[in-house]
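Table 4 source record.
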Amino acid sequence: MDFWWLQQADVSAWIALLAALFIGHALADYALQTEFMARAKSRHYCPPPGSRPADTPPTLWVYVLSAHCALHAGVVWALTACGWLGLAEFILHWIIDWQRAEGRLSFHADQLSHLACKAAYVAAIALS
């Protein structure tokens, strides 16, 4: 991986990147995630009364969760200029949010896991 913009970077550059990734996470997980998306990304989503079955296919949650994770992947890709880290974010975010929807992770564990991924990306860049 060639991180030309961070070559010879000092610690403040790594901290700035980590802060940017944390802010990007907050934007994608809160500001850009609609109430519908927050609910429908779970396979346990119950459509509102009166909706037609055709409007809510059983696999809707896969599409909604994937769209949510694509937003996160785009943020990571844009901030790191690394498509591989964007792909890693997509996969890891998908797994973490799926585990949260299944009740295997608490809200706090979910958020900590996401932020730990961002710290790992910065470490991977710093060590490359």
